[in-house]
Amino acid sequence: MAPPCSSIQFIDTALSCTSPFALSYTDLNQKWLIRKHLISLVQDHPDFTLSTDSYYHNDGSTVNLLNATGYLRVSNITPPVHVTIWLHENYPHMPPIVFINTSSNTLNQIHQNHPFVDLCGLTTSPYLQTWLHPGCNLCNLVHNLIKIFSHDHPFSYSSSVRNTTSFTHPSLVSKREALDRLSGMLHYDKAALQAKAEEDIEGLSILQVELEKRAGVFTNIITELEHESLKLKERVMELAEETDVVVNWLKVNDAKSFGIIVGEEMENAFEGVDEESKMVINGLAADRGIEDVIYELDKALEQGVVSFDIYIKQVRNLARDQFPYRDLLVKLKGPDILI
Questions:
Q1: Do 322 and 287 contact (CB within 8 A), yes or no?
Q2: CATH topology of domain 5-163
Q3: Could you tell me if 41 and 68 are in contact, meaning their C-beta atoms sit under 8 angstroms apart?
Q4: How many angstroms from the chain centroid is the CA of residue 149?
Q5: How far apart are CA 125 and CA 147, in angstroms?
Q6: HEC states along 9-35?
Q7: Domain locations in the chain?
Q8: How far apart are CA 129 and CA 121, in angstroms?
Q9: Which of 58-62, 162-166, 262-266, 329-333 has the highest mean pLDDT?
Q10: For 102-123, what is each residue's pLDDT tens digit?
Q11: Are 149 and 82 in contact (CB under 8 A)?
Q12: What are the Cα distances from residue 298, in Å, to 288, 290, 303, 322?
């Protein structure tokens, strides 16, 4: 099919313009190739429309470029893809810049993690990445886009329609299609590995936080134990000093009692200075002894070693024996001695 005369006239007029809005193509041979490729494009795809506009590069520079806009109908059951193909100022030595337009149909948004199209619509297919003049041109580019979008459609539509396994279809036998298939498979494998790695990293981060908390707890416990150990050592030293003081006092003030401590029974180490003191010491010893026996009986009852009847009987007998000693102590020293 011959291209419309209006399209040819538009191309010639745009390329020959010398006004301040002139296009950024300067070489005559370059313009001739652009004219040839655009004519072939609108001849094969008559629904594409041509226009000129300013294009803003990522480095901030602005150029006036030709672009072709149209719909790629990849199949009868999937929505068409609206694309704009910008011809780079160094075309055909630099590949075209392809964008998928989503503003014309808000229901068809680009799905995440597409191997060739980012969420802004910029398309970077293997054909564009390996672009090489004179083997590459606009018509083959559009044909390649239709192929890869038929295998992996860029829009997020019903999952029952989407073909997610087409990259492994055995009918893809050409070198170009094999490269597209391999790129798509590698992209999805990379995305899956990255997702798994992020999941593992998140799990390890949580584990790291938990281990750091436990390390903090253990550090606090060790610090407290060290402080406790230091306190016990200080207390042992204090008791040793106090023991030395007592021993020295006994050596100086009561050599006979000191001899009793080291060679005789401990009970005879201290003696009362008078008869009343001796009675108080003996009464206290008997009272405390009976108290210790009653305490042991309480523990025996709790542990079930003795029966309740035996316990009551023994406690009564001990209380009967304890009363005279307590009565004597109260008479000699007052009730405060029993506290």
A1: yes
A2: Ubiquitin Conjugating Enzyme (3.10.110)
A3: yes
A4: 36
A5: 11
A6: HHHHHHHHCCCCCCCCCCCHHHHHHHH
A7: 5-163, 272-338
A8: 16
A9: 58-62
A10: 765 556 778 777 888 888 889 9
A11: no
A12: 15, 12, 9, 17
Residue type, 153: H
The pLDDT of 233-240, averaged and rounded, is 87
Please state, for a pLDDT cut of 70, what percent of the chain lies above it. Answer: 81
Dihedral pair phi/psi, residue 66, rounded to 5°: -85, 150
Q: Is the model's pLDDT at 269 over the cut of 80?
A: no
Q: Give the span between the Cα atoms of 144 and 214, in whole angstroms.
A: 58
pLDDT digits (tens, 9 = 90+) for 43-69: 999 989 999 999 999 898 999 999 999
Q: Cis (ω within 30 of 0) for the bond into 134?
A: yes
Q: Residues of 118-130 as b/e, b for ≥16 C-beta within 10 angstroms?
A: eeebebebbbbee
Residue 321 to residue 332: CA distance in whole angstroms: 18
Tokens of 119: 């969420």
Packing angle between helix 28-44 and helix 5-16, nearest 10 degrees?
160
Query: Which of the pair, 2 or 316, is modelled with greater confidence?
Result: 316
Q: Three-state DSSP class for 185?
A: helix
Whether 275 and 332 have beta carbons less than 8 Å apart is answered as: no
CA-to-CA distance for 67 and 53, rounded, in angstroms? 8
Could you please report the per-residue DSSP string of 251-301? HHH-HHHHHHHHHS-GGGS---SSHHHHHHHHHHHHHHHHHHHHHHHHHHH
Q: Judge residue 100's burial from the number of C-beta atoms within 10 Å of its C-beta, 0-12 exposed, 13-18 middle, 19 or more buried.
A: buried
- Token readout for 93 is 């030595």
If you count them, how many residues does the chain have? Answer: 339
Task: Check pLDDT > 60 for residue 216.
Answer: yes
pTM of the model: 0.53
